[in-house]
Amino acid sequence: MATAGKVIKCRAAVAWEPSKPLVMEEIEVAPPQAHEIRIKIVATGVCHTDLYHLFEGKHKDGFPCVLGHEGAGIVESVGSEVTKFNPGDKVIPLFISQCGQCRFCKSPKTNLCEKGWASDRYDVMSESDTRFTCKGKKVLQFMGTSTFSEYTVVNEIAVAKIHPSAPLDKVCLLGCGVATGYGAALNTAKVEPGSTCAVFGLGAVGLAAVMGCKNAGAKRIIAIDINPTKYEKAKIFGATEFVNPKDHNKPISQVLHEMTNGGVDFSLECVGNVAVMRSALESCVKGWGVSVLVGWTDMDDFAARPIQLIAGRTWKGSLFGGFKSKDGVPKLVNEYLEKKVKLDEFVTHNMTLAQVNDAIQLMQTGDCIRSVLSVALQ
Question: Which positions fall inside the Enoyl reductase (ER) domain (predicted)?
Fold first, then answer.
């Protein structure tokens, strides 16, 4: 490529400070260094975690930054010592790395990795080092990816090479939301055939959890949301029943206990709300019920009565659906191409990068499942 080894000037949506609209700017993207890959981002989803950092976390040291972590693109150039990627490869940048060498990567018990931003910088949600500058200022790369930019630079341990026929405007959703919910049901909860499940929150992550429950063979999948317009979408992914907590004058856990003769076998909290997390736990049957925290938040403490766990319930957390990122994402892409995993049905809005603030507003109001932004021409 003619741009290899050179600084690239391109468009990006910059978050200069918390709680303010993103600003379309021209940024400079430095060439990749050793073990790094520069990627032309073709498409990106807008995920609630982007909104969390902008409107809820608001850590002053996490700005200015370029948000976005659910993208897909094409390798533009590679740094020295990169041997498994070439210009032209289709790839998905990953917010969880997989170095393959640390004790976590070597363990089958987890998908965590000691390398990358996530090892100790959950508060600012980015590494201090960056390949972005704008107007002479350093701009951070959100979650190590920053897909709200036409070009980004990512460490090779956080990039997955995918099938060359994969449509990037669909498989980008496997960079976060769909993989997160789907894997939470299959890998973390380990939903069993014939079981009864409850999914709290019907955004993209929740709907993906519904899909995971269905593919695991669950008999009843109860979808829970305060927005009744989402039920028809939930049915597409496999929900068998819908409950709106606003329709009841008793706790939702009590409603579910009455519906299921004592509680569900598996519950998944896909909102990121500590009160809902407790409700999801309390909705599980005693003895063997499993509840999984999937929604992202680090703002509040959560609480439960000890007897709820002593009585045999299990409370678990799930990050990126338990998938080891570099191994799992290419397999998920192949499952989509084989029509085993739905992706098209999540996309409710197709927009441009310049419309990113409109996409953020759609997510804030709950008027979309996933908006996919066209970033750079393929």
Answer: 9-373
